[in-house]
Structure formats: C-alpha cells, structure tokens
Amino acid sequence: MKIKGTIGSKEVIILVDSGATHNFLSFHLVQQLALPLTTTTSYGVMMGIGISMKGKGICRGVCISM
C-alpha cells in the first residue's frame, strides 16, 4: 500500500508492507533531512517478498505523519 505522509515539513511516500519485520527509510532521505543515525554493523530488514536488505543504521524517534 502506498500512502502520502510527512517527516517534519518534507512530504514523503510511505510504502506499507505488512510482511516486513521493520520499518526503514532511504539513506538519501536520512541524509537530506539530517536525521540522527546510529550506525550498526549487522542490521538487516526482512522484506515481505523474502529478500533481506542490509541497513546502515537505526534512526530512533523519527515521527512520521500519515
């Protein structure tokens, strides 16, 4: 499912995947909004289609409005 939302004043497109284990943001968006990023060495996200993606870190406390 595709939903419009905002992070701060930035409009974003939110893709809802009911089979995913975690939420994630594009790294480009994290850099663009200067969101706080705690780097991790082994953080992965299991997508609903069965693919595992490796993340660069965790952004804690990000408020997303839908």
Description:
Strand 4 (44-46) and strand 5 form a beta hairpin. The two termini are 12 Å apart. The protein is mainly β. The mean pLDDT is 87. The longest helix has 6 residues, at 27-32. It is built from 1 helix and 6 strands, in the order ββαββββ.
- Assign the structural class, choosing from mainly alpha, mainly beta, alpha/beta, alpha+beta, or little secondary structure: mainly beta
Low-confidence stretches: none
The share of residues in helices is under 10%
Helix-strand pattern, N to C?
Answer: EEHEEEE
Mean pLDDT: 87
Number of strands: 6
Query: How many domains in all?
Result: 1
Main sheet record: 2 strands, antiparallel
Strand order of the largest sheet: 1-2
Q: Rounded to an integer, what's the Rg over CA atoms?
A: 12 Å
- Give the end-to-end Cα distance, rounded to a whole number of Å: 12 Å
Strand fraction equals 25-35%
Total helical elements: 1
Shape: flat
Features:
66 residues, mainly beta, two-stranded antiparallel sheet, flat, 1 helix, 6 strands, two-stranded antiparallel ribbon
Describe the structure in brief:
With 66 residues, this protein is mainly β. Helix content is 9%, strand content 33%. The chain has one domain.
Architecture blueprint of SSEs:
Layout: E1 2-7, E2 10-15, H1 27-32, E3 38-39, E4 44-46, E5 52-54, E6 57-58
Antiparallel strand pairs: 1-2, 3-6, 4-5
